[in-house]
Design brief:
Structural class: alpha+beta
Number of strands: 4
Radius of gyration: 50 Å
Largest sheet: 2 strands, antiparallel
Shape: rod-shaped
Strand order of the largest sheet: 1-4
Length: 118
């Protein structure tokens, strides 16, 4: 019975030595981005108007023969206008990235004992 205990202890010792010789490097990188943009501008308008006017011209002659003219004018204007506008904005974007890397360096470990020994 002591032979089997000795043998299993040697196997454990050998496995622990092999595990000590293995180096593990792990790295993980993540990236993320997001953006939103968009613009829409609409303007509209209308105008209407009416103009009316009248004028009157009178000419007077003096006793010495000189003429004198007077013009009388009147005008009326009416205008209506309407306008409006709309502004809309929309947009979206998204990006993700992830990278994982794992490196094992050192001797390989045969826990099951099925590989051939060199």
């Amino acid at each position: 019975m002591s032979v089997s205990k000795n043998s299993s202890q040697q196997e454990r010792s050998l496995a622990q030595q092999q595990l000590r010789n293995v180096q593990i490097e792990e790295s993980e990188k993540k990236a993320s981005a997001s953006a939103q943009a968009g613009l829409n501008l609409n303007l509209f308008g209308a105008i209407s108007g009416v103009f009316a006017g009248k004028s009157k011209k009178t000419t007077d002659t003096d006793a010495n023969g000189k003429s004198h003219s007077v013009e009388d004018s009147q005008g009326v204007a009416h205008a209506k206008g309407a306008g409006g506008g709309t502004l809309n904005a929309i947009g979206s974007a998204k990006a993700d990235s992830m990278e994982r890397e794992r490196k094992l360096e050192g001797e390989s470990v045969d826990f099951l004992g099925i590989e051939e020994r060199k």
